[in-house]
Amino acid sequence: MPRDQFQQNLNTLKEFVIEMGKLSHNAIVDSVQVLKTQDAELAEKIFQGDEEIDKYELKIEKCTTQLIARQNPTAGDMRLVISCFKIAIDLERMSDLAVDISNVAKCMEKEDSEALNNIARMANLCDEMLQQTIKAFETLDEELAKDTASKDDEVDRLFYGTQNLLIDMMIEDKAIISNASHLLLVLRYLERMGDHACNICESIVYMTEGKRVNLN
């Protein structure tokens, strides 16, 4: 494969990752809205969007395989190709978690509580991390990736604080056990989203610096 064609395919691979990131962002934002409103149509939109994200993951897998098989990439190019593949896996899992949140929301009654407000903050933070990781990927900014990963500490703080709050609420009022139990699931899903965002940051650092780091 000529170098110009290889570079063009490499750029296409990066564009696939960026587009996949945008779709995952939409899924996270919409899933929290479904949690607040139990909007069935919006939930269906998330499910359809997840199918589109799965298609992008397959495109990225095919593209990475072809790039490696048809031309022996340089060390830097190989890191980029491998990182794109790993990032796609994390983005797909974040989208799956958004679907999980939507499924939980369908089993809940509407509520307005401190716990739900904390969960919304947690979701916004996860989405902010995702958007910054995509920007860091586009600009090859490893410092932005490292700074973004540090925000997972706040995600974890909200996770443990809200988990304790929900447990206390269930002890005080058994009538809310069902809703609170579902919110505990959502908390766990969001905490995992933060972890996947950190994984993406680690892939960006590997791609740009050639170093494997633990940012989680």
UniProtKB/TrEMBL annotation:
Keywords: Cytoplasm, Phosphate transport, Transport. GO terms for biological process: intracellular phosphate ion homeostasis; negative regulation of phosphate metabolic process; phosphate ion transport. One of its GO terms (cellular component) is cytoplasm. SUPFAM superfamilies: PhoU-like (SSF109755). Transmembrane segments: none annotated. The keyword Lipoprotein does not apply. The keyword Nucleotide-binding does not apply. Belongs to the PhoU family. Plays a role in the regulation of phosphate uptake. This is Phosphate-specific transport system accessory protein PhoU. It comes from Methanolobus tindarius DSM 2278.
